[in-house]
Amino acid sequence: MTIHSPGRRLRWWLLLLLLLNLGLMLPRLLAEPEGGSPGGPSPKVEHPPSHYLLSKEKRALIEVLEAYIAGLQASDRLSRAERIESLSRSLNRSAAILKPANRVVLGSTAVFKFPLRRMAEELSELDPEAMQTLSKHFTERGYRNGGESWTFDPLEEVFYQLVFHDQEYIQPLHAMQIMAWEVKGDREPIRTLLEQQKAGDYTKADTVRQFFTGNTSTRSGWRQMNRALKVLDPAALKGCTWAELGYGTGQIFEAVREVVGPSGVVIGVEIGPGYESLIDRISRRHALAWGEIKLVRGGLDDCRLPAESVDIVHEAGIHVGVGTPETLERETIPWLKSVKRALRPGGIMVLDDCGYPSLEGLRRVMDRAGFEEFQVVDLSSAGTPATQPDFVAAFRKPAPAASASPGVEGP
C-alpha cells in the first residue's frame, strides 16, 4: 500500500484544479480575438459556412457597408460636414476596391450597388460639388463600370425604392443591417432584431434579406424560367394555370406571365404574411408586367391549393427531399401529396434545386408521394462537382391515357 503525505496530496489537488481550470478556459482563449474586452464577455466569433468564404474585395466592401450603417446610427449626432466627409471617404474607398476588379468579382459583389447608390444620392444632396469628383466612378444609379449586374432592372428598382424611400415598409438602417448579416452569412441576428422590435413575423425580414442575395431580379427570374423550359413545352403553356411554390420576392412572376399569356392564371404560394404583403405592396404601387397574381398561404405539410386546380407547379430552391426521415414523413410527403391533389390529371411538377438533394433522393420522395417521373435534364457545367450534378426534374401526376394538361407533351 502506498501512503501519500498530506503535502503531496495537496500538490495533486492543486494540479488537478489547474488542469480543470485550463480545460474550461482553453475554448475561450482560442475563440477570443486579439484585443478582446477583458472587462466583459468575449465577443462571439462567427465562423460562416464554407459557401460564405469571402473574397478580399467583398470583405473590404462589407467594411464600407458597416461604416455606412454606423453613419446611419449616428446621423442625429453628425454635422453636415462630417456626413459629407464620411460618404466621400466610403465612396472613394469603394472605387479603389472595384476599379481593378475582374468580371467575376464585379458579379459577386453587385449586391453592394444598393448601399453605394444611396451613398452617392446622399452625397449629391448634401454637396453636389463633392459628388462631381466621384462622377467618373459613380452616378446616382450606382457604380459606372460594373456591367449589367450593377444596373437596376425594374424589380430591383422597386426593391431599392422600398428599402430607402418607403419607411412605412422598413427603416433603411434595419434594411442595411439585414444586408450586412446576409452577405456575411449570419442570419441569426435577424431574429434578434425582430425580438427587439417585438415583431413576431420572420417572413418580412426574410423578404428583405432576399433583396440582397443577388437572386431577386427579373433577370434571375428569367434564368429560373429558362431552366424550367428545359422540361416543358413553351408552345403548350399558353392559357394554363401555373402555381409558383415559394415565390419569395416575385422575381419569376414576369417570366411566368409572359409564358402563360394574358389568359393564363398565375398563383403564388408562400408560408408567411411577409411575402404576401410585399407582393401586394408592389402590385399596388409599381407598374410591373405581372398581370394579376393570386396569392395562397401555404403550410409546411399542405400547399393548400384546391384539388385539380393547376396545370404546372414549379419550385426553385426549396430543396424538396432534404431533411431527416421524421421531417420527410411528417411534412415533405404530405406536402407533396397535397401538390399532387392540386394538379389536374397529367399535370407536371418542376423541381429545380441545383442538384440538392441528389436525383436518387428526389426520386424516392416523389415516388412515395405518388408521382411518376416525366423528364430530367442534366445542366451541369464544367465546374460542377461530379458528386452533385446540377439538374432540373419534372414529375407527372398519373393520368388516364386520354387526359393531358397543357405544357406536358411527352419527353
Describe, in plain words, how this protein is organized in 3D.
With 411 residues, this protein is an alpha/beta fold. It folds into two domains: 157 residues, no CATH class; 179 residues, Vaccinia Virus protein VP39 (Rossmann fold, 3-Layer(aba) Sandwich). 47% of the residues lie in helices and 12% in strands. It has 15 helices and nine strands. A seven-stranded mixed sheet has the order 5-4-3-6-7-9-8, with helices on both faces. A two-stranded antiparallel sheet has the order 1-2. Helix 14 links the parallel strand 6 and strand 7.
List keywords for this structure.
12% strand; alpha/beta; Rossmann fold; disordered N terminus; 2 domains; two-stranded antiparallel sheet; 7-stranded mixed sheet; 15 helices; 47% helix; 411 residues
Strand order of the largest sheet: 5-4-3-6-7-9-8
Inertia-based shape: elongated
CATH topology description of the largest domain? Rossmann fold
**Largest sheet, strands/sense/barrel:** 7 strands, mixed
The radius of gyration over CA amounts to 26 Å
Distance between the termini: 85 Å
CATH superfamily of the largest domain: Vaccinia Virus protein VP39
Q: In DSSP terms, counting alpha (H) and pi (I) runs of 4 or more, how many helices?
A: 15
Strand content: 5-15%
Quick check: average pLDDT? Answer: 85
- CATH top level of the largest domain is Alpha Beta
Question: Topology of this protein?
Answer:
Layout: H1 6-31, H2 56-73, H3 80-98, H4 103-108, H5 113-126, H6 128-132, E1 138-139, E2 142-143, H7 154-165, H8 172-184, H9 188-196, H10 202-211, H11 218-228, E3 241-245, H12 253-260, E4 265-270, H13 273-285, E5 293-297, E6 310-316, H14 325-342, E7 343-352, H15 359-368, E8 372-378, E9 391-396
Parallel strand pairs: 3-4, 3-6, 4-5, 6-7
Antiparallel strand pairs: 1-2, 7-9, 8-9
